[in-house]
Automatic annotation (TrEMBL):
The keyword Transcription applies. Gene3D superfamilies: Homeodomain-like. The keyword Transmembrane does not apply. SUPFAM superfamilies: Homeodomain-like (SSF46689). It comes from Phyllobacterium bourgognense. This is AraC-like DNA-binding protein.
Length: 380
């Protein structure tokens, strides 16, 4: 990630702020500049990559100066890679951060610039973080949520990493305050903790398209998920029922996609992977016609994509068998029920219409066809 370009001292005199000014007319903004997300949610972006190598780490350190002390690497002239996008959620903040390896520490009393006493819930997409707190030491790896308290003393190291971080102020909610106080400086390495990881991944995907009018519902769902996943109870789980259901469905989709070619993939397999009861699994997939139908639907979609690919010249029965259809007649019947055409029609190009389209693609249909296209997309 580090730049190999040596620092040209003659070309870039002065402080790192002078360097920022010199590249302010480039595509990436200087620290603190607001970038508007597509649908009006405020977002802030910082990247070090368009700065001269010798000034990159200083910009990164300044970016986090209100919450952390970052130790200077041995050689800053080789550059330091960092990128952060932060969405303003009103009473919460959510960041996607990519950073080179570094050492960090909480702010000491005499260096504290702001009264920031937030909690952070961080989930690494890759890399690891090791934290040393007064009462415990813990390490967080990819896929596991870590809870830090910025108002407490700690230090640690992070490898080259990419992470999602939710910032929760201490006065956000009395219940959340009590819940996170009991979990600070720990990892949520439980079934419900992993579900909160899935929730954060879904949040990162959706935030660029969230409108400000939807923020109250988003914040309420986030609060419910924190309470349910960090401090499970009957009341907390009931309050978080809808966001938990969405997270479970997304997790199920990833499991099914990763095991499309596995003939052992059945309802019971999915139930064990999700860690839910049979009745819960039934309720989750009832809108999709049941688990078996959902799995078959995903396999048929994948078969349609293979048959539409001009570079895939395998026999139709080979494509069907790879997706766990052992009978060619059964595959053809299921395919026709799903798409209204035969596998041969798709292979020969007699039907070019895909089984479902993105939202933007729906507009390409004739007006009278859009509702049906939308329903197919929703089902997929």
């Amino acid at each position: 990630m580090r730049s190999e370009t040596a620092l040209d001292q003659d070309r870039f005199p002065g402080t790192y702020r002078d360097a920022i000014a010199m590249v302010s007319d480039r595509a990436m903004p200087d620290p603190g500049r607001i970038v508007r997300a597509p649908l009006h949610l405020r977002a802030y972006e910082l990247t070090t990559h368009d700065l001269p190598p010798g000034y990159q780490f200083e910009a990164w350190r300044t970016n986090f100066a209100s919450i952390l002390e970052l130790n200077t690497p041995e050689d800053v002239t080789v550059g330091f890679g960092g990128k952060q996008v932060t969405w303003d959620l009103g009473c919460l903040a959510f960041s996607r951060i990519k950073t080179d390896a570094l050492r960090f520490a909480s702010l000491r009393g005499h260096t504290r610039r702001d009264s920031l006493d937030h909690w952070t819930l961080t989930m690494l997409l890759h890399g690891s973080v090791n934290t040393i707190a007064p009462t415990r030491t813990f390490e967080g790896g990819a896929g596991v949520v870590q809870v830090h308290s910025l108002g407490r003393t700690f230090e640690g190291t992070v490898t080259d990493s990419e992470m999602l971080t939710l910032f929760v102020p201490r006065d956000f909610s009395y219940e959340v305050t009590n819940t996170l106080s009991g979990a600070e400086f720990s990892t949520l390495d439980t079934g419900l903790g992993r579900l909160f990881s899935d929730f954060m991944i879904g949040l990162a995907k959706r935030l660029p398209a969230v409108e400000e009018v939807d923020l109250p519902a988003l914040v309420a769902a986030t609060r419910a998920m924190i309470l349910a996943c960090v401090s499970p109870s009957a009341d907390h789980l009931d309050e978080a029922r809808e966001p938990i259901a969405r997270a479970l469905i997304e997790k199920a989709h990833r499991i099914v996609q990763s095991r499309l070619f596995d003939p052992a993939l059945r309802a019971e397999t999915l139930r064990r992977e999700l860690g839910v009861s049979r009745s819960r699994l039934y309720r989750l997939f009832q809108p999709f016609g049941g688990v078996t139908h959902y799995i078959q639907h995903r396999r048929l979609l994948d078969a349609h994509a293979a048959l539409s690919d001009p570079n895939d010249q395998r026999r139709i029965i080979e494509i069907a068998e790879q997706r766990c259809f052992n009978d060619g007649t059964e595959f053809s019947r299921a395919f026709r029920r799903e798409f209204g055409c035969s596998p041969t029609d798709v292979r020969s190009g007699q039907t070019a219409r895909p089984p479902y389209r993105t939202t933007a693609d729906v507009k390409a249909y004739a007006p009278e066809e859009r509702f049906g296209a939308l329903l197919r997309r929703l089902h997929g």
